[in-house]
């Protein structure tokens, strides 16, 4: 099996697109800007979904489902919200088609115009807060801790598999609280859940921070985010959590009777991650040979390839391998015994390397004679000969080692690509010749933020939560600054 993938250093964008398709993750569909997620890609998403869902439920959240369609009047109630999404909205205007008189064409039936146009969900705050109005009367009804797994539509002009598509999959949490402090604590808690998931499950190091006022979610008082760094030195927003204040409660008149008997507006949060995480996974770990998957996310953690000439040899290998795979089942290690006779072992090795299977085991007649197996690591492309007596424990430890090794490798790259600069010349030089996060002083104004973006295409990715107070001057204007922020070019 020939990979024929463009090298990363030659054309990173082309490498990414080819890898997504050739590793059987996704492909473009017949609908402009939309993708088909193939079974192997969806299996990875399911692992992400299952782990996040478990964490949400551990923090007291429940899943629900809300309509795909939002009446236009709902959407326009929160002014900054409609401003933020207006250019990306798909709108349903009619509910019926009809055939032409000759029966050869289909057209919209002009008599089937909707009384009120419907927006195809770009996010669900408006429909959910209209619903919460019916659910909430008293402080006893709070908090509401709800999550939704759904698809959303944002009519993107320039699309890219997983990273930016007109329709994508995500989860969106929407919570309602009696107090401001409770809502802020919720938004901060979910940021921690996302950061822990990214680092300890996906092996992707992230920076936790706040978005600037310009970059906040439309309708939020505060947006918290996790930012990751890809191997080409560009940043990728991996998850966001929003403190919405009382904006949506006021827009939809959602009040509750407090313990003191007063009528008060509810406090809100929303938070989400999407199939963009698939893009982050690919671009953080993979190499010129194909995907590199952390064991936590690999649909197949171990593949076993028999090497044989006769059916008798294959049967002997199969019997020996069954002892190992029975142990794998007890340990919840996912595996595949690839005994297809239609492909040679070398072809199979190539296929599983391309698909990022963390561990490959090869076994032939000589291995059985010697009581050994050949074990290959996908992340380092190294091999070891391991005694069959200790093979299960060896592989169990190896999977843990690969998971932590991938995180440490990505962390080293990220940390080596956070550069402090003190002048705009330095800023431009790092952006052009090194890339990554640039830690720089900023005067806090939207005008300066916009000007730097216009001049360099770099945006403020976040104001790090753990930044230290440090008097300085803005790299562009020379005006006073109270601390550094992280700039980068981004996806």
Automatic annotation (TrEMBL):
GO MF annotation terms: ATP binding; proline-tRNA ligase activity
Keywords associated with the record: Aminoacyl-tRNA synthetase, ATP-binding, Cytoplasm, Ligase, Nucleotide-binding, Protein biosynthesis
Superkingdom, taxonomy of origin: Bacteria
Location relative to the cell: Cytoplasm
The protein's enzyme class: ligase
Catalytic activities: tRNA(Pro) + L-proline + ATP = L-prolyl-tRNA(Pro) + AMP + diphosphate
Main location: cytoplasm
Domain Aminoacyl-transfer RNA synthetases class-II family profile stretches: 27-294
GO cellular component terms given for this protein: aminoacyl-tRNA synthetase multienzyme complex; cytoplasm
Domain notes for this protein: Consists of three domains: the N-terminal catalytic domain, the anticodon-binding domain and the C-terminal extension.
Subunit structure: Homodimer.
PANTHER family assigned to the protein according to its UniProt record, in alphabetical order: BIFUNCTIONAL GLUTAMATE_PROLINE--TRNA LIGASE (PTHR43382:SF2), PROLYL-TRNA SYNTHETASE (PTHR43382)
Function noted in UniProt: Catalyzes the attachment of proline to tRNA(Pro) in a two-step reaction: proline is first activated by ATP to form Pro-AMP and then transferred to the acceptor end of tRNA(Pro).
Protein name, per record: Proline--tRNA ligase
Gene source species: Myroides phaeus
Encoding gene, per UniProt annotation: proS
């Amino acid at each position: 099996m020939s990979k024929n993938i463009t090298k990363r250093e030659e054309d990173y964008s082309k490498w990414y697109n080819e890898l997504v398709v050739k590793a059987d993750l996704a492909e473009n569909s017949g609908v402009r800007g939309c993708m088909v997620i193939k079974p192997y890609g969806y299996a990875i998403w399911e692992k992400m979904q299952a782990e996040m869902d478990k964490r949400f439920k551990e923090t007291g959240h429940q899943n629900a489902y809300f309509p795909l369609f939002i009446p236009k009047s709902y959407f326009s109630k929160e002014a900054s919200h409609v401003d933020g999404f207006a250019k990306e909205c798909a709108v349903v205007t009619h509910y019926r088609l009809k055939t032409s008189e000759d029966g050869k064409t289909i057209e919209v039936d002009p008599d089937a115009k909707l009384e009120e146009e419907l927006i195809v969900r770009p996010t669900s705050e408006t429909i959910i807060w209209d619903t919460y109005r019916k659910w909430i009367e008293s402080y006893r009804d709070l908090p509401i801790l709800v999550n939704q797994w759904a698809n959303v539509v944002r009519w993107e002009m320039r699309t890219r598999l997983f990273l930016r598509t007109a329709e994508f999959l995500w989860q969106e949490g929407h919570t309602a609280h009696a107090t401001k402090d409770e809502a802020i604590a919720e938004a901060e808690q979910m940021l921690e859940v996302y950061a822990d998931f990214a680092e300890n499950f996906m092996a992707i190091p992230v920076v936790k921070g706040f978005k600037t006022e310009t970059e906040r979610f439309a309708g939020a008082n505060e947006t918290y985010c996790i930012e990751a760094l890809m191997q080409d030195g560009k940043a990728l927003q991996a998850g966001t959590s929003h403190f919405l204040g009382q904006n949506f409660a006021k827009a939809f008149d959602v009040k509750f009777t407090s313990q003191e008997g007063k009528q008060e507006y509810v406090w809100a949060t929303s938070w989400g991650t999407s199939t963009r995480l698939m893009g982050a996974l690919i671009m953080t770990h993979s190499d010129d040979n194909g995907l590199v998957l952390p064991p936590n996310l690999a649909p197949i953690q171990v593949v076993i390839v028999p090497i044989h000439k006769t059916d008798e040899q294959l049967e002997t290998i199969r019997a020996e391998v069954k002892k190992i795979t029975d142990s794998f089942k007890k340990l919840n290690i996912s595996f595949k015994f690839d005994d297809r006779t239609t492909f040679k072992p070398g072809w199979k090795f190539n296929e599983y390397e391309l698909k990022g299977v963390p561990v490959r085991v090869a076994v032939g007649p000589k291995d059985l004679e010697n009581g050994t197996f050949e074990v290959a690591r996908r992340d380092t492309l190294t091999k070891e000969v391991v005694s069959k007596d200790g093979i299960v424990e060896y592989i169990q430890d190896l999977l843990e080692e690969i998971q932590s090794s991938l995180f440490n490798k990505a962390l080293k790259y990220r940390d080596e690509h956070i550069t402090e600069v003190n002048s705009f010349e330095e800023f431009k030089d790092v952006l052009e010749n090194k890339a990554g996060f640039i830690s720089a002083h900023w005067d806090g104004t939207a005008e300066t933020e916009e000007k730097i973006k216009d001049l360099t295409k770099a945006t403020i990715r976040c104001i790090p939560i753990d930044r230290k107070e440090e008097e300085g001057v803005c790299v562009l204007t020379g005006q006073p600054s109270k601390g550094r922020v992280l700039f980068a070019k981004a996806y």
